[in-house]
Amino acid sequence: MAPSLARRLIALGSSDPERAERFLAADELAGIDPGLVLEGLAFAPDPDTALLALVRLLGRRPQLRALVEGGPERSEAVFRLLGASEALGEFLFQHPEHADVLEGSLSAEPQGADPGALRAGLLRAVGADPRTARPVAGVTGPPAYEALRVAYRRRLCDLALRDLGAASPTDFLPAAAAELSDLAAAALEAALAVSRAEAASGFPPEEVAAVGLAVIGMGKCGARELNYISDVDVIYVVEPDVQGPGGAGRLDDTRAVQIGTALATGIARAVWSPGREPALWQVDANLRPEGKDGPLVRTLESHIVYYSRWAESWEFQALLKARSIAGDAELGARYESAIAPFVWASAGRDGFVDSVQAMRRRVTDNIPAGEAERQLKLGPGGLRDVEFTVQLLQLVHGRSDETLRVRDTTSAIAALAAGGYIGRTAAAEFDSSYRYLRVLEHRIQLFRLRRTHLMPVGEDALRALARSSQGVLDVGRATPDQLTERWQRTKRSVRELHERIFYRPLLNTVANLSPDEARLTPEAAQERLAALGYRDPRGAMRHIEALTAGVSRRASLQRQLLPVLLGWLAQGVDPDGGLLAFRRVSEALGTTHWYLGLLRDSAAAAERLCQVLADSRLIADLLEVSPESVAWLGTDAELAPIPLEAQLQEIQAKLARHEDPSAAMRLVRLIRRREILRTALADRAGLLDTQTVGRALSTADEAAVRGALQLAEAKAEAGGPLLTRVLVVAMGRQGGREIGYGSDADVMYVHRPLEGADPEAAQRQAFEIVGTLSALLTQPLKPAVQAERVLQLDADLRPEGKSGPLVRSLDSFAEYYRRWALVWEAQALLRARPMAGDTALAEDFMALVDTVRYPQELPAADVMEIRRIKARVESERLPRGADPSRHVKLGRGGLSDVEWLVQLLQLQHAAAHPALRTTATLPALDAAAELGLVPRDEAELLAEAWTLATRVRGANVAWSGRASDLLPSSRQDLEAVARWCGYPPGNASALEQHYLNLTRRARQVFERRFSGREA
């Protein structure tokens, strides 16, 4: 190969110059100046593809030689098309009689830009008369399908030539997308004509003629912004004529639906079935009422009933683009009129924002792994971000502003800008970004006419894409690097614009930020806030005003941050509460230098803050009184639970500096409050599992009790000599380190007089110490936090219960357990654990209770007594009217069922198996499974039920600040609990169903293992 030719081919973008030179020497090009071919290849996005297609095509249609010989003025369009679309080159090779489209000889044919002309042309291709109201094709079966598809692709070639030759592809984009939509509509009209002819073989022709079928375009086709290759989303509406066939009575709806279904099926067959000429695109009717499970066609009345009673909010968002595109035009127009009121009232529906956000999440979640960064359509900063933003604003403001009731995206952006809902600058950026992404999508699809939205990765493919997406007046050739850089820049712009477009105008209603930006009226701003999930838009506007008013640095930074923060807050369960809490936290921190800097510089910290403020009353209240804790959100390490030893060291340091017990104890309680907040933040961030949360909360309580006991003993000693040592024994959930937010602490008090002390005086002093301990812990902090509960010490599990002495000596405990202990008390001692006090006394007391809680043998009578008590607890302690299936503690398969079963196994087997000697439920259950006392699958089921019930119980407190043992029924409460339990937004029903199913199965296991009978 001549070096000069090789260099020129490489310069043109050839990836295989040796192969290209062989094609240049092909017989089909004989006699044509190679220089003219090379000049033409300079216009081809992919010169190798163009050259191959040209050589093959000249072999089938030699007349095209004149175009090449005429130089670039005549051949430019040929090379642009053949180098941009391998698929259309193949089409022209297979049908050389249509290659005259390259010669510009369509003057005698419809030019394609007029929808009516497109419809007429494709109807004539299948032998139908376009002048009739319901055209019927003159051919059927595969010949009709082939004729339709060939005619369609001929018009596609004509459009592609004009598109690729546009001075500005982005300017031409709306016209190209509209024509593609009209071409698809014409294809469906011709397919319906074929289907009518075919249906006459299965139904009386007069009945087929008496049925009106309207094809409603959805999505991009409905909006006249279709791609080169895309599914065409449709909905079918059917209606029999007022007067039936032959002047007889009107067909009944059932018969009309049967015929309509046959017609709709025939449309899809004509367009999509396999054949000699490849299918065009898939006709997708899954947006119809009830989706795939619903009937393919419905009457107009049936559609109206469905949308008035059953449709979900996202369905109305889809109907925003609904347009009659084929079939019975009058019926289609009535459908549009009937549906429009539903569409424009949808933003006022409960859960509207949740449904829109859930739909966007579903789109994102369905992106295959590894494709997100290459997605033009679905990924972050892609086309869907533009479309969802624009559609939501249309639905919000279109209720009162009819100028926004347009279907296509570019027109909607212009209307939003004209109405002041988007700033002019932002609208221009959004529009240009959208058009550019669509041009890239078109060029990628055009090459092989395949439905794809992925950016190519190969350098040759990127080079071809860069060239095909340039206008004819662009100077120079774009490189792959330039293409990639512009695409990435566009994605970033789209992501940023979403925040600006949604929320910046809200700020402009209360602060004069910039004359360029749109200024919503207060009413429009409140309307937008309401549609985005804020229940008190006026209150929200007051908070925004308070945060952004003035000229201070803080107000300026808040104006920069709020567009993002308002969006994150809107994604929470309670945006209003979250915004109020954010205002209070911001006001509490004032001008603290690190706070706004943290929010500005750490997106993760800012998003976490918005999340917890909008999803947890407990956290919001605690952050209001401890706003400095916001600093923890910047790193996971700050949210790790503080070990007991570290907390005790800090408490000792505090106590050493304060002589006043009340002042010292306040600092101890502040440490406890701080650690509860730290645990809740880590819990909501998904950094802790259920057992770790319980241990962290128990540790905070234990540290506080130890500090309080030290102060109580010091006070007693200040009034005279210390006569006794006191031990606080944790019981119940506190003993198992399984407590939740705001749980009381079940305890017992043990004392042992010091050597030589008077026993009665020691007993009195023990009472004083215990009384002081309780008073120190229960004195509320100031400022008080409504959602926070003081640490109540509950000693009702002591011997003889409430009627017994509050504190006993070790000897008294020994005597009582030797003579009077009941089986329920042995069961309660399974959770006993030293919490605070004398170490030696703790060792002796635990040695004593081990003899009681781990009996060598559990008599059958005791087993029966445990079962009787459990039944009594269920019948007497379950609140009146409570649904047992939703009560997480005492209800079916809840905490009580799992814990009583585990404790029965411990009483029966712990003496022989030390692995069962633990105060925690799940380790004991795991040990029972290892020992074969419970089948492993049943143990795992019980553990899952116990864990979920514990999560729900804690979530109730975290969400509302109030304790509740019920799985909520309210949708908002259930959504909040579901999110706390780790479910994605919008999955409250999934949590509910999982909980009810799981606990039902857990109850069956409990019945078998505890009661010895089947459920």
From TrEMBL:
Tagged with keyword Secreted: no
This enzyme's EC code(s): 2.7.7.89, 2.7.7.42
Record SUPFAM superfamilies: Nucleotidyltransferase, Nucleotidyltransferase substrate binding subunit/domain
Top-level lineage group: Bacteria
Protein function: Involved in the regulation of glutamine synthetase GlnA, a key enzyme in the process to assimilate ammonia. When cellular nitrogen levels are high, the C-terminal adenylyl transferase (AT) inactivates GlnA by covalent transfer of an adenylyl group from ATP to specific tyrosine residue of GlnA, thus reducing its activity. Conversely, when nitrogen levels are low, the N-terminal adenylyl removase (AR) activates GlnA by removing the adenylyl group by phosphorolysis, increasing its activity.
Similarity field: Belongs to the GlnE family.
Protein name stated in the entry: Bifunctional glutamine synthetase adenylyltransferase/adenylyl-removing enzyme
Species assigned in the record: Sinomonas halotolerans
Top-level taxonomy: Bacteria, Bacillati, Actinomycetota, Actinomycetes, Micrococcales
